[in-house]
Amino acid sequence: GDGYQQRRPAGLNAQLKTFQVVFRVTTDAEREALSAFLSWHGGYRAFLWKPPKHNRTVRVVCREWSITDNARYSDFSCTIEQVVN
């Protein structure tokens, strides 16, 4: 809700990551599926995601994304934020 975020310099949650990623989809079905997935999570429901070049999944939210449509593909530019719960 209210935009409150607790931040502390020490502790387990002090170094949560933010990722800027682009997901490229090449079919209308993939575009609809990814759009529906992001919309359903609404920027507040967390999901598991494995970042590139990482060996484990993390719990994340995607509060911001945009779609750029091209003749052959669509790019979803997403800000993925690691969360604790």
TrEMBL record:
Protein name: Phage tail protein
Source species taxonomy: Bacteria, Pseudomonadati, Pseudomonadota, Gammaproteobacteria, Enterobacterales
Protein's organism: Escherichia coli
Pfam families registered for this protein in UniProt: Phage_min_tail
